[in-house]
Amino acid sequence: MNMNKSNFEMLSEVFKHRVIMDPRTGDETWKILEQAIHHYRERAGEDVNRELIRNITTMLMDLGSSVYEEEFETPFLQVSAKFYRAESHKFIESCDCGDYLKKVERCLDEEINRVRQYLDPSTEKKITNVVEKEMIANYTLRLIHMENSGCVDEFGEAGSFLETSSTTWIIYLD
Predict the structure, then answer these.
(1) Counting Cβ atoms within 10 Å, is residue 160 exposed (0-12), middle (13-18) or buried (19+)?
(2) pLDDT tens digit string along 140-150?
(3) Residue 115 DSSP code
(4) What DSSP character marks residue 137?
(5) Residue 122: which region, alpha, beta or left (left: phi > 0; alpha: psi -120 to 50)?
(6) The whole model's pTM is what?
(7) What would the 3-class secondary structure string for 13-66 be?
(8) In 3-state terms, what secondary structure has residue 147?
């Protein structure tokens, strides 16, 4: 071990490799983290042990933000992007613009709640960016030109400006 590291850093490293990464002790931890990463059970309306997930994500942060980011946050954001890509495709095919934006708002609220209940606060902006990208930015043109969206009628020639601007413009159209 590097002599320049503090005792805490060395103990954290040993803990990470001997407890977290060891299949004999880490399997249950990873099963719980995988549930949090996929949070499919919670999205399906099932209960999850939020306190346990919060304790594990806090432990990962205590081991260092890079441990939290590598072991939890990055996979969580990747799975979330895939989930919201599929959800947005399903919603855009079945909703008008107003209903679609209400669903986006609900998804954003749910993710913010999830972060506040059991994830590190640094994840909030990242997950909201994922939801906005997958559900708004990827569909900006379609939302603007959607029948009864009001965008073309309301903004006329400004519609071309809206097409090239950020998702923030779409969020406030209602």
Answers:
(1) exposed
(2) 888 887 776 55
(3) H
(4) G
(5) alpha
(6) 0.72
(7) HHHHHHHHCCHHHHHHHHHHHHHHHHCHHHHCCCCCCHHHHHHHHHHHHHHCHH
(8) coil
Residue 153: how many other CB atoms lie within 10 Å = 9
Question: Which residues have a Cβ under 8 Å from the Cβ of 93 and sit 6 or more positions away?
Answer: none
Q: Which domains does the chain have, with CATH numbers?
A: 7-135 (1.20.1310.10)
Using an 8 Å Cβ cutoff, are 71 and 59 in contact?
no
One-letter amino acid of 41: R
Q: Is the pLDDT score of 108 beyond 50?
A: yes
For residue 53, give every residue at least 6 positions away whose Cβ sits within 8 Å of its Cβ, in sequence order, or none.
32, 33, 35, 36, 118, 119
Distance from C-alpha of 13 to C-alpha of 145, rounded to nearest angstrom: 53
Check pLDDT > 60 for residue 60.
Answer: yes
Residue 39: name the closest of 136, 130, 101, 140 by CA: 130
Find the distance separating the first CA and the last CA of the chain, reported in whole Å: 58
Kindly tell me if the per-residue pLDDT of 152 is higher than 60.
Answer: no
Given its phi and psi angles, is residue 39 left (phi above 0), alpha (psi -120 to 50 degrees) or beta? Answer: left
Q: Which residue has the tokens 């959607």?
A: 146
CB atoms inside a 10 Å sphere around CB 21:
13
Taking the CA of residue 13 as centre, how many other CA atoms within 13 Å lie in the half-sphere pointing to its CB?
Answer: 8
